[in-house]
Amino acid sequence: MWSQLSSLLSGKMDALATSDHASVVSMNMFVALLCGCIVIGHLLEENRWMNESITALLIGLATGVVILLISGGKSSHLLVFSEDLFFIYLLPPIIFNAGFQVKKKQFFRNFITIILFGAVGTLVSFTIISFGALSIFKKLDIGSLDLADYLAIGAIFAATDSVCTLQVLNQDETPLLYSLVFGEGVVNDATSVVLFNAIQSFDLTTIDHRIALQFMGNFLYLFIASTILGAFTGLLSAYIIKKLYFGRHSTDREVALMMLMAYLSYMLAELFYLSGILTVLFCGIVMSHYTWHNVTESSRVTTKHAFATLSFVAEVFLFLYVGMDALDIEKWRFVSDSPGTSVAVSSILLGLIMVGRAAFVFPLSWLMNFAKKSHSEKVSLNQQVVIWWAGLMRGAVSMALAYNQFTRSGHTQLRGNAIMITSTTTVVLFSTMVFGLLAKPLIMFLLPQPKHFTSCSTVSDLGSPKAYLPLLEGHQDYEVDVGNHDDGTEPTIARPSSLRMLLNAPTHTVHHYWRKFDDSFMRPVFGGRGFVPFVPGSPTEQSTHNLADRT
Amino acid sequence: MWSQLSSLLSGKMDALATSDHASVVSMNMFVALLCGCIVIGHLLEENRWMNESITALLIGLATGVVILLISGGKSSHLLVFSEDLFFIYLLPPIIFNAGFQVKKKQFFRNFITIILFGAVGTLVSFTIISFGALSIFKKLDIGSLDLADYLAIGAIFAATDSVCTLQVLNQDETPLLYSLVFGEGVVNDATSVVLFNAIQSFDLTTIDHRIALQFMGNFLYLFIASTILGAFTGLLSAYIIKKLYFGRHSTDREVALMMLMAYLSYMLAELFYLSGILTVLFCGIVMSHYTWHNVTESSRVTTKHAFATLSFVAEVFLFLYVGMDALDIEKWRFVSDSPGTSVAVSSILLGLIMVGRAAFVFPLSWLMNFAKKSHSEKVSLNQQVVIWWAGLMRGAVSMALAYNQFTRSGHTQLRGNAIMITSTTTVVLFSTMVFGLLAKPLIMFLLPQPKHFTSCSTVSDLGSPKAYLPLLEGHQDYEVDVGNHDDGTEPTIARPSSLRMLLNAPTHTVHHYWRKFDDSFMRPVFGGRGFVPFVPGSPTEQSTHNLADRT
Q1: Nearest residue of B to residue A463, measured between CA atoms
Q2: What is the model's pTM?
């Protein structure tokens, strides 16, 4: 991604780097707007319709209008949308944090389902959108698009943005649903970016069996190699911190090393032309499973909240950015002579998105339900509708991919490209605003639960769902955990039918052997819960008893 | 600073923004080196001579040599030294953290002394170095330098870097000494940058009384306005967080708002052409006095360590950077025909630095001792030598200011300028390595204390000296604090002599009235210790009792 964008985009960062007074004014306004979004988002927390993302989007749009009026219709944004900024600075913390905060037990228990939804589902969605667009758009007059463009459209609109739904779902009341939507969203992001990269790196003007196979091979290679690299970097950080036991000297060193290693994993992926997104995701998962348990109490609290905060700010930043960029007048000029075409294209894309998602959510859910015996693990039709709805929103990933495919340095001269950019903007705005606004009432209607929107919950931290346990982090806790790894939602795995067995048993078997392997080999080497050497008089112990004055 | 650097430096950031594969390789190496510095710094923690800064500097130098050999003598650095990077990304977190972590009771109790050392002392040092250089350099053949250049040299070499000494001093055993060295270092950084800006913004080709007065006025205006802006932003953040009580919903919002407001204070200072360094310093102090007490327990731990970590990484980054840049071959070519001159200039500067510092440390210490009655508050001669030594090192601020004054976009064609750049590099390297390496043994020799270098101290966190108090943060604690604000080191203020009264009484009176004002007006409005509304069932309370499972 990086290397492809390089020559095209180096000019763009200038807008950010050029430090004249105008850009200082812009930066001030932008930071002030970010603060405003956070405060307003907080005030609207209890509102029935709103959430942080939509607030930021609306504030961005409003600011765009004000700037458009002040500048006399010349410009609508404070900063030019840049894929570099997006892929290098904003997306990595969001994805890393997603991996870092994921409830691993739920994630790994539902691993096969999540991969089915996230990877296979995205491929289904991609195929339907690509070929739907290919067959319908040819009848419309939208300029010249080749096969690679249509495949790119598929990848662009297969990238979901489930942040609106996740802000509404309560993971304590519907853990399975939350875990599915969350896990699918994360895997989906990575899959669509890997897919997009695979498309860009192939010459798809002529297509035959050999190229299709190569394409699949390339996709799998990117997927697997990136995962391994991420896991490797995460394990390396765990090993270093465990061996050296930094906590003895300094919390800051531990936190610094975790941050730098996370960033390093991303940079290494770029170095080896792999997918940084996927790498950083798995680095986050491994770090929270091993490294996080090797550091001091203070480092745990710090990393947990610092990563969540970075991710939170990046998300608000993104929505603000997309809101402002949506009104960019230059792009709309190309389509102003044929508004009907643009509306038609956007509507068709929205339709394809809905069909493409329905085409895998309901069949896969049925398959999943068929494989589960216990009623509590089945996904009801209402829940299926929620899963379907949760992935209808399109966000910043789609925007960034569309910019990358259809513009050169943020500008375009081709009619077809301009229409695709404006349609992407329309789809992102419409889906986030309309589908996003409806998410809260829809979920309240479909999953009526009395305590769903109480505001004083301890776990309402955005994107940092786990409550932390400050004192019970010892061997005792570990034993509880081992004894409890079926976690009560499922009384027994006995008597599976044959197809059930096929789908269900491997998950449990894999999970079971993984636990065994983890306990007997991985944790003793890399640390993790219950395998942290307890040093008497270490800061972990002292920090809670030290009542020294602060002033 | 920003606006001045703008046009000159926009080209430089390209080197960072240009995202071709070569720069990915550089970034990887740089991040890996940072990790290496942290690990090696940790391993050398107990070493008698080394500390983090010197380790980073040496690793930087070694890497520079390797790159020089690989590139066949063409280049020695991975990234070009850029003042933009330094003043916009690296210095603000360091200075903000300094303000945020300062022990405010010690800082404000010794406020007048710290200001005397930090501001008046820097001015004395600046004057001696400027006029010393002016009178001596004219006899050497070093090209054309005008008056503004000599004044800039004074400001450049008045900027101390006491980080090496602070890593050695133990603030629990010698709180007064630590507070003086730390406070002076922070005020010194700000003073020298403000001084440098004031010099640059004045036409000093002709000097008369009117211009000198204007210069002083400008300096005072920058100093005071920046301080007020910083305090204002800090108070605003405290007020917003107190009024809205974010903790009820989300730790991440609080942390995000604190980070964004801190950055906003810096950007606002740039907007109004003030000194961002000074603004961000006072913003940090105010935030730690008010805002920090208004947030949840988790936010406190997170901000404390996250800011310290950012500052720590920025420091290591800087020393690594300076080490690599020192071998930049281009600059040395100019001076290679007259190595004698360069050595002479560097030696003279080192001499002037030592004299300039002695010229205020010993007289001001004498004055201070004269004003103090109790023996325990006096500064012994040995301690005075430590204070003197602590400020002999020169660091990244000097480098950045020298680049700004003597180069255009990092390059120079003038012989005089090239000599000043290489001399600055030499002085920085020599002072950090030689004086820095000697700091540990010197302090061990001058202040022999048995437990000085034990490694298992809870407060050995680099740059985050305060131990945090997790549970005693209520009204009870507040009363203890109020009843205790003479803190035992000084039994009474009675019977001061006239000069003692003149110097000592105001400090105590100011401190006393400030406490009264703070308790009766500021804290009730802006929060702070003991004035945080206690909400039953708030996350503060629950987080310690919530033992929910994490996996």
Answers
A1: B252
A2: 0.78
